[in-house]
Write a structure and sequence with these properties.
Helix content is 78%, strand content 0%. The protein is an all-alpha fold and 267 residues long. It starts with a helix and ends in a 6-residue tail after the last helix.
Length: 267
């Protein structure tokens, strides 16, 4: 319990910073939509449709009617997914490897606890952090959309999209743990998980830009839980949800096995 509390204390400043950034992004995004409302919806869609397809995909506009509030929120959703993924991936990698990075591993390992206990405390603290960020994103999204729409009519659709955010967080957090458990160099896990997030987003873009590369949608979570599909179906993909959870659990199990066996740098 003491180690769990220590991890929460050591990560709260980062959590506050990311939370504040997301709330600020929400306020900025809705202020822009209020400007759109003064224009005709057809004109807005004509302008966005005139953009190159690649540009529409990169900025999350493709297959979304941004003249509607829920369509516009779909763009914000993609950015929230990116921010939440980056935070969660870096947290998963850093929460395990920070002692080796800061040269404090010797102090940690001399404590009368097993490596599995250490990793469990870090895992639990990390999950609490990502769940708090998830609540910040969800509450600010529901309240923000309701304020702009002047009612809570879109709340169920917003909440339906938020489950995608949570799965993004769990997926990349578990990958961060996996890489931190496997690699002895404390700099590698954060670098690799960052590359994976950017890489899967790049694949998401390619899947929509090129019909010949449409098959890559099967290997990128940004396509599994894309806003247009969630808005159209009314919920996230159950199949990809199960796949995400299974992969995440396997990554955590492997991280336990690897962390308990590998040498840990103490100086």
């Amino acid at each position: 319990m003491q180690m769990f509390i220590h991890e929460l204390k050591s990560n709260y400043k980062s959590l506050l910073g990311w939370s504040a950034a997301i709330v600020f992004f929400q306020l900025s995004g809705y202020s822009k939509f209020e400007g759109f409302q003064s224009a005709q919806s057809g004109a807005i869609n004509n302008i966005t449709n005139s953009f190159p397809k690649s540009l529409q995909v990169i900025f999350g506009m493709y297959n979304l009617n941004i003249a509607t509030l829920i369509g516009y929120f779909g763009i914000l959703y993609l950015y929230f997914a990116l921010l939440a993924s980056i935070y969660s991936g870096l947290l998963g990698a850093g929460i395990v490897s920070k002692e080796e990075r800061d040269k404090t591993s010797e102090f940690l390992l001399t404590r009368p606890v097993s490596r599995n206990s250490i990793l469990s405390a870090k895992l639990l603290a990390g999950l609490v952090n990502i769940f708090i960020l998830f609540l910040v994103i969800s509450l600010s999204s529901v309240i923000g959309v309701a304020l702009v729409n002047h009612n809570f009519a879109l709340t169920s659709q917003v909440i339906g999209m938020m489950w995608g955010i949570l799965l993004f967080q769990i997926f990349f957090f578990s990958l961060g743990l996996l890489f931190a458990g496997i690699f002895q160099n404390p700099k590698l896990p954060t670098a690799i998980v960052t590359i994976m997030i950017v890489g899967t987003y790049f694949l998401f873009v390619l899947a929509d830009i090129s019909s010949q590369l449409n098959w890559v949608r099967f290997i990128t979570p940004f396509k599994w839980f894309a806003a247009p599909a969630i808005i159209q179906n009314g919920h996230i993909s159950y199949t990809y949800s199960v796949i995400t959870i299974i992969v995440s659990v396997l990554a955590v199990v492997v991280s336990y096995v690897a962390y308990s066996r590998r040498d840990i740098t103490v100086a």
